[in-house]
């Protein structure tokens, strides 16, 4: 029998031959180019020039529907089919394989034996002979040992809120406390597994009197005060409404209800959001089996969660974009929270849009899809307006947000701040509330420039300005990470160097000087290596250990901190004028999302410092005028032929020669007869990590047909470009 198979890690397919039937999506191994090579079965083949299957799993973790989805992703995004199949499996899965020798004859005296025991007892030659004669066969058993819960040990929160505020706790200890605040007592083993904390963390909390561990046979009672989502869902749905309007609560209720019918896939854009959602779900539905899947899990935990989901042992699977590929067979509902977030897009090969993949899974498996956002993707907005998507509108009930725009051209300035901004901060702090400050970049100065000749210090490997960091008194490239020593004299003319602009480090230092009695901290990639640490900063903000928190984009993500009384946005002007078709939309979504942190329960304030107060994107964002801004943005995109009215294929090429990329892409453009092509041109970040980058853009109504032409002529010309379909922006990954 002959089958088409995709070679792992490539876009190539081959024909394979097997004496036994192979399953769609099954992993097999063949001898290819002299090496043992992993492949995935796609389906029957009519070719005869084939490779012999040397080894197989003997079962498939994927169904025909998953194979259909993999093929669609490859066509839709131009991603290599073998790399797409790889996404369905976690790294290291073969570390959990047990091989067994299965008897095919009643006269051999055994039914099955571990392969290692058989070889040790009878030898490899005997095994080979028995395999040839069909007396035995080898099967793989994938088994990941699940921890057995000690049914009588349950963990309860013992300390009161005032005690918790006074007691210093580590990040892991705070994660446990938050988890228990939503749960009336959980199995110790469940807690250890869900949060990936050690028993020493539990013991330390017990010694501090924060928790108690009891031997209790009776499980905690289910909460009886929960509501249900009574509206009927359509095939594709949008939960639309501002921050603080109850969208997340409705999503949690939906997840609980649909989990009775099968597995619910619940996608969020960032890892830092997951722990909080996990705690809330466990609190609402104590008996529910909730899994978690993201890139920061340990290898063993990731494989365990994957295996449990595949075997149908999880009711709700919480995860970031990679979780969309966990091959669940019994989907009942798919949820995508903050569906507009560009974190759902995978820029590096194999590229894909997790929201689009979720839509396809919903269609193929015939289960409802629910997307949620205060600022939906334009495609979602258009489909909702045209009635193709059922819209559930949520209205903010309790919060009253007062928003001020500060014109930095006219206001009295104190350092990087307007005097008015500092006054609002002081008023908020006196009220006993917290302040959140958004800054676009990390570092101290945004660039270093000569006062005499105007020379700007740039990275030798990248076409970007170096950023000064006061803590290390060094210049850093935020693209390649290269670090330089800081000299006060200009390398060109010997003049004096001075700093321009500001980053989180400078803002933190200024606020510490303005408010010496207050606890000011910053959060960016310089101080936070693990994104899970974001949760710790948020907890400290809630408890009052931090009065003012300064941060980059990571502080704009979905979290609920009612204690925040003021949100300040200091620097979005430069983002508005980026040479990117999506610049205005991204700024609008950013401002609305940041100000959403001030709209949680009660009266909140927000303030935006800008040199461009009359820009339409700013005026509409502060009014949360989603409809008004989107209509203008759609009108502009329709006239220019940009998504969602046409598909956009972004093609980029990097080379060591500053002129080669343009020459090669020009040849590709000339081959694409009949296509609407912009470019090629230098990318706005032309040099990065020693390579020069050129790009071009193709606009098309027939994305798969055009992609096929791009791939065909790229091969003819010997090019290996980066191809991105409908990316959120025209950025090029490293």
From TrEMBL:
Residue ranges of every copy of the Helicase ATP-binding domain listed in the record: 228-394
GO-annotated biological processes: DNA recombination; DNA replication initiation; DNA replication, synthesis of primer; double-strand break repair
Listed GO MF terms: 3'-5' DNA helicase activity; ATP binding; DNA binding; hydrolase activity; zinc ion binding
EC number assigned by the record: 5.6.2.4
Annotated Gene Ontology cellular component terms: primosome complex
Catalytic activity: ATP + H2O = ADP + phosphate + H(+); Couples ATP hydrolysis with the unwinding of duplex DNA by translocating in the 3'-5' direction
Superkingdom assignment: Bacteria
Keyword terms: ATP-binding, DNA replication, DNA-binding, Helicase, Hydrolase, Isomerase, Metal-binding, Nucleotide-binding, Primosome, Zinc
Cofactor: Zn(2+)
InterPro entries cross-referenced by the UniProt entry: DEAD/DEAH_box_helicase_dom, Helicase_ATP-bd, Helicase_C-like, P-loop_NTPase, PriA, PriA_C, PriA_CRR
Record text on cofactor binding: Binds 2 zinc ions per subunit.
Binding annotation for Zn(2+) 2: 459, 462, 477, 480
Domain called Helicase C-terminal: residue spans: 485-637
SUPFAM superfamilies hit by this protein: P-loop containing nucleoside triphosphate hydrolases (SSF52540)
Gene3D superfamilies: P-loop containing nucleotide triphosphate hydrolases
Chain positions recorded as Zn(2+) 1 binding sites: 450, 453, 490, 493
Subunit relationships: Component of the replication restart primosome.
HAMAP family: PriA
Family (UniProt): Belongs to the helicase family. PriA subfamily.
Function: Initiates the restart of stalled replication forks, which reloads the replicative helicase on sites other than the origin of replication. Recognizes and binds to abandoned replication forks and remodels them to uncover a helicase loading site. Promotes assembly of the primosome at these replication forks.
Full protein name: Replication restart protein PriA
Organism: Thermotoga neapolitana
Primary gene name: priA
């Amino acid at each position: 029998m002959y089958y088409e198979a995709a070679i792992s890690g490539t876009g190539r397919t081959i024909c394979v031959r097997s004496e036994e039937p192979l399953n769609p999506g099954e992993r097999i191994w063949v001898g290819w180019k002299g090496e043992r090579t992993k492949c995935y079965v796609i389906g029957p083949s009519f070719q005869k020039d084939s490779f012999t299957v040397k080894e197989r799993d003997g079962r498939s973790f994927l169904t025909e529907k998953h194979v259909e989805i993999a093929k669609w992703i490859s066509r839709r995004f131009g991603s290599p089919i073998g790399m797409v199949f790889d996404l369905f499996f976690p790294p290291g899965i073969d570390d959990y394989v047990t091989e067994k020798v299965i008897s095919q004859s009643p006269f051999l005296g055994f039914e099955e034996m571990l392969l290692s025991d058989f070889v040790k007892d009878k030898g490899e030659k005997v095994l080979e002979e028995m395999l040839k004669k069909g007396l035995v066969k080898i099967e793989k058993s994938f088994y990941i040992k699940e921890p057995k819960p000690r049914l009588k040990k349950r963990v309860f929160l013992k300390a009161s809120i005032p005690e918790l505020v006074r007691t210093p706790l580590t990040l892991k200890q705070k994660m446990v406390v938050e988890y228990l605040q939503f749960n009336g007592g959980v199995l110790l083993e469940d807690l250890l597994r869900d949060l990936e904390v050690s028993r020493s963390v539990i013991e330390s909390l017990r010694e501090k009197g924060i928790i108690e561990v009891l031997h209790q046979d009776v499980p905690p009672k289910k909460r009886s005060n929960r509501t249900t989502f009574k509206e009927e869902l359509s095939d594709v749905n949008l939960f639309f409404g501002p921050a603080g309007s109850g969208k997340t609560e409705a999503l949690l209720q939906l997840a609980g209800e649909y989990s009775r019918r099968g597995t619910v896939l619940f996608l969020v854009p960032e890892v830092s959001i997951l722990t909080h959602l996990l705690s809330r779900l466990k609190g609402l539905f104590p008996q529910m089996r909730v899994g978690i899947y993201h890139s920061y899990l340990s290898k063993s935990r990731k494989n365990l969660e994957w295996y449990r989901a595949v075997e149908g042992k999880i009711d709700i699977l919480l995860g970031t974009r990679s979780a969309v590929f966990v091959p669940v067979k019994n989907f009942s509902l798919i949820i995508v929270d903050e569906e507009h977030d560009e974190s759902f897009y995978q820029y590096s090969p194999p590229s894909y849009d997790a929201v689009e993949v979720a839509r396809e899974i919903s269609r193929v498996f015939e289960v409802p899809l629910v997307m949620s956002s205060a600022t939906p993707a334009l495609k979602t907005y258009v489909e909702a307006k045209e009635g193709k998507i059922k819209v559930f509108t949520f209205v903010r009930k309790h919060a009253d947000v007062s928003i001020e725009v500060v014109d930095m051209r006219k206001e009295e300035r104190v350092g990087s701040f307007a005097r008015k901004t500092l006054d609002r901060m002081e008023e908020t702090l006196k009220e006993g509330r917290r302040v959140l400050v958004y800054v676009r970049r990390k570092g101290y100065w945004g660039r270093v420039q000569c006062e005499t000749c105007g020379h700007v210090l740039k990275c030798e490997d990248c076409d970007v300005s170096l950023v000064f960091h006061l803590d290390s008194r060094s210049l850093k490239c935020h693209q390649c990470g290269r670090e330089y020593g800081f000299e006060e004299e200009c390398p060109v003319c010997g003049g004096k160097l001075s700093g321009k602009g500001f980053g989180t480090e400078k803002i933190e230092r200024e606020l510490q000087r303005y408010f010496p009695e207050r606890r000011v901290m910053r959060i960016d990639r310089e101080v936070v290596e693990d994104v899970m640490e974001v949760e710790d900063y948020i907890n400290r903000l809630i408890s009052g250990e931090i009065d003012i928190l300064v941060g980059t984009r990571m502080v704009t993500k979905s979290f609920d901190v009612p204690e925040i009384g003021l949100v300040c946005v200091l620097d979005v002007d430069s983002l508005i004028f980026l040479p990117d078709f999506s610049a205005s939309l991204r700024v609008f979504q950013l401002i609305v999302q940041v100000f959403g942190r001030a709209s949680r329960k009660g009266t909140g304030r927000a303030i935006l410092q800008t040199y461009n107060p009359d820009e339409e994107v700013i005026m509409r964002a502060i009014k949360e005028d989603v409809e008004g801004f989107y209509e203008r943005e759609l009108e502009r995109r329709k006239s220019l032929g940009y998504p969602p009215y046409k598909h956009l294929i972004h093609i980029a090429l990097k080379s060591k020669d500053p002129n080669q990329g343009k020459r090669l892409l020009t040849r590709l453009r000339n081959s694409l007869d009949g296509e609407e092509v912009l470019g090629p041109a230098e990318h706005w970040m032309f040099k990065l990590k020693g390579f020069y980058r050129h790009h071009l853009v193709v606009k098309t109504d027939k994305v798969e047909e055009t992609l096929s032409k791009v791939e065909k002529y790229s091969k003819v010309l010997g090019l290996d470009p980066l191809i991105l379909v409908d990316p959120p922006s025209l950025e090029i990954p490293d």
